[in-house]
From TrEMBL:
This is ABC transmembrane type-1 domain-containing protein. Keywords: Membrane, Transmembrane, Transmembrane helix. The chain crosses the membrane at residues 36-69, 106-126.
């Protein structure tokens, strides 16, 4: 009888141990699920941040396009066409401003630097032309004037 009771007690202990193990497994499973949920939330947050970044980049692109339209297309094209109506200006020079301007600038600077005669030509062109045409490139005359006195 005592042996039977001991056996029953042992069995009960084993059952309790099994139940505790099952509870531990269940807790571990819940913990894993919570971790997975947390990872999903982090991923969602990262996705939202990426989307926000893309939207900001798109906004920046739109601002750059606006800047390009307003300053480079409207300003130079519009003023070049309007200034040609009122005075003797070079339409070709303005219209192809970004394609030819620097090339001609260095080309003229080269001639200006090496030949005394061209200084008077540039003096006349940049001073007289700017004074009468009223467009927005006043600084070139000063550059040539400065370089002339600096190098000679």
């Amino acid at each position: 009888m005592l042996l039977l009771l001991l056996l029953l007690l042992l069995l009960l202990l084993l059952l309790l141990l099994l139940l505790l193990l099952l509870l531990l497994l269940l807790l571990l499973l819940l913990l894993l699920l919570l971790l997975l949920l947390l990872l999903l939330l982090l991923l969602l947050l990262l996705l939202l941040l990426l989307l926000l970044l893309l939207l900001l980049l798109l906004l920046l692109l739109l601002l750059l396009l606006y800047y390009y339209y307003y300053y480079y297309y409207y300003y130079y094209y519009y003023y070049s066409t309007t200034t040609t109506r009122y005075c003797y200006c070079y339409y070709y020079y303005y219209y192809y401003y970004y394609y030819y301007y620097y090339y001609y600038y260095y080309y003229y600077y080269f001639y200006f630097y090496y030949y005394y005669y061209y200084y008077y030509y540039f003096y006349y062109y940049y001073y007289y032309h700017h004074r009468h045409c009223h467009h927005h490139h006043h600084h070139h005359y000063y550059y040539f004037y400065y370089y002339y006195y600096y190098y000679y």
